[in-house]
Design brief:
The chain is about 10% helix and about 25% strand. With about 110 residues, the protein is mainly beta. The strands form two sheets. The protein has a four-stranded mixed β-sheet, covered by helices on one side. It is globular.
């Protein structure tokens, strides 16, 4: 049995034709629980359900994933640096999601 392809709300996807998109990435314990909070409680629009979960919140983007190894959307194109206050910043290029390459679903992230 194959899983259905994830639905991407392309109209709200943060994918500009040029330039960069600044997003907030958070590591969460439960993608489903966090997705519900940012969409239902704070009024965000779910752009992608998971792997990574993308929620449009006002004029910003919240990306949520559990911690773990590289994913198909970012297999090894990673750069980490610290800002002047010591905060860790990841700079990357996530092109896999635009071509349907997603990480596998985890049981704890499924609805219900």
């Amino acid at each position: 049995m194959t899983e259905p392809s994830p639905h991407i709300d392309v109209a709200n996807l943060p994918a500009p034709a040029e330039g960069i998109v600044v997003t907030m990435f958070i590591t969460v314990r439960s993608v489903a629980r966090s997705r519900d909070f940012y969409s239902r409680v704070l009024g965000g629009t779910v752009v992608l359900e998971e792997n990574p979960c993308i929620v449009k919140l006002s004029n910003s983007w919240i990306l949520m994933n559990p911690g773990g190894p590289p994913t198909p959307d970012k297999p090894g194109i990673r750069c980490y640096l610290r800002d002047p206050d010591g905060y860790l910043i990841e700079v990357g290029q996530a092109t896999g999601v635009l071509h349907g390459h997603f990480a596998k679903k985890r049981p704890e992230d499924l609805p219900g």
